[in-house]
């Protein structure tokens, strides 16, 4: 999709691409189909970094957002499994799962002029789960 939009992005002289990844592309997440899912999300994060370097000369910025567990219809089945939900919430410093608006607001910010010096970054929107470390 980025390649198809490339000519338009290049001509705009101030473009921003925001990919949606997952924390599964940043840390190990034990869910069904986790390995393949994590590999694809990790690839998005690397694509973000590579395009940031390759396309910066055309003033095209690329970033990705890596949400944790977010209240969405897609994640509803995970939220219904008490063991999975408790696993996420117990390791999340903010003690809850996220809301869709908390992800979309970061997307909006990354597209604004105020984010014009941010490129090549993967921003985790996960209530602190990916930085929590090991609990003893």
From TrEMBL:
Coiled-coil portions: none
Sorted UniProt keywords: NADP, Oxidoreductase
Pfam families hit by this protein: adh_short_C2
Statement: the UniProt record of this protein carries the keyword Oxidoreductase: yes
InterPro entries in alphabetical order: NAD(P)-bd_dom_sf, Sc_DH/Rdtase_CS, SDR_fam, TR
Protein family: Belongs to the short-chain dehydrogenases/reductases (SDR) family. SDR65C subfamily.
Name the record gives this protein: Uncharacterized protein
């Amino acid at each position: 999709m980025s390649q198809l939009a490339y000519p338009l992005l290049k001509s705009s002289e101030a473009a921003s691409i925001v990919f949606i990844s997952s924390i599964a592309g940043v840390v190990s997440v034990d869910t069904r189909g986790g390995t393949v899912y994590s590999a694809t999300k990790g690839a998005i994060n690397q694509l973000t970094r590579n395009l940031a370097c390759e396309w910066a000369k055309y003033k095209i910025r690329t970033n990705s957002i890596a949400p944790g567990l977010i209240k969405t219809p897609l994640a509803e089945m995970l939220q219904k499994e008490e063991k999975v939900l408790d696993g996420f919430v117990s390791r999340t410093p903010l003690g809850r799962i996220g809301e869709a608006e908390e992800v979309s607001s970061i997307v909006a910010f990354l597209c604004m002029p105020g984010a014009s010096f941010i490129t090549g970054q993967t921003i985790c929107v996960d209530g602190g789960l990916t930085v929590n470390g090991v609990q003893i």
